Amino acid sequence: MADSFKCLACNSNKYHMVLDMGEVPLANAFVQNSEDTADQNREPLSLVMCLECDLLQIKDEVDRTKLFSNYLWMTSTSSGAKTHAENLSEHLWKRFGNNEKKPFLVEVASNDGFFLEHYRDAGFDILGVDPSNFAEEANARGLPSIRDFFGVDVVNKILETREKPEVMVARNVLGHSSELQDLVAGMQKLLSAEGTLVLELPYAYMLRAELQYDTIFHEHLSYLTVGSLHNLFKRYQLKITNVDFVHMNGGSLICEVMHENSKVASNDQAMLAFEKFIGLNTVNGWENFAKDVNKQRKDLVALLTDLKNKGHKVVSYGAAAKFMTMLNYCDIGPDLVAACGDANTRKQGLLCPGVHIPVVSPKELIDMSPDFILIGAWNFKDEIISVMRNKYNFKGEFIMPLPYPEIID
Ligand SMILES: [Zn+2]
To answer: Considering the entire predicted model, what is its pTM?
Structure first.
């Protein structure tokens, strides 16, 4: 095989192709108008499994500078994030809190400091690390943050002035890291001897079970299972000491990780046995995935075409990165979906990458008198339905695209 591949976690060049989606524009490359060429830069997108360490990952990495040039997303724009931040900070304080001494908590990829603020209010002494300009915004709001990519270098810098933290939090970080080995090496180096690293990440079991292929996009580089995490941490003398689940991003794992020689026993044996039982970390276990995804595409386009032929107006809601993957993979344009509503004012007035569906405000979307709303950001399904019904008095029906296209009331 002439093409190059190097596993993000173990450097192996042996892989198995799970799903080839062809060439797709970058999910955040929204354009101003149809002459704007920002989205013409299509990049190959395919999911593979490393045959050495089982890590599911994107085969071809895109230049990092291209990916972050159009950053239109912030944690705090979603109201679901608020509840989650409250719950998580309460949970962390219950587990690791100590009123005698404020435990030191470092958050990796702290974004605009939205979660940091909750951890601080819960009682932790906090520090965030984030590569974006949001780190500076957080600092200005009194939430100590370092602007940098998290890895061994920044850890050395932190350790010049600080003790090792008792708690580290990394939400949705591992899967987005192009420097996975340096990231985990940095975590291992920074974490105190009996400290706990708390990870939140979308569970690749849900990717398979719910056919969430739209979560595959260029910025989302790896798709984790307890098995692949176990293999990854083992190489850095770390172990999984607790596994939990949370309804975020379509079903996420919350894993607690400690040093291999910690007094706390590892606790992932049952999950590893379960994943072995369902073949989650094997090539055979993913055998039908591409076929099922292809069927969903055909069924969704058929449903939208049928509604259009019957004279119905269909729009969508939630211009999330994942929805851009789906629209482009299915080649759904403004002829089938007239507009895409989104509350993020930074996206309104722009066109979706590749397929050029206009992004409008929720109010403008409703003013178009749609009969059906295709739910783009399905992980916020309940929130979207409730806002559209109660705030905008939408009387039509909703379409859930996954795991199979379905009209719901
Ligand atoms: Zn590997």
So the answer is: 0.92
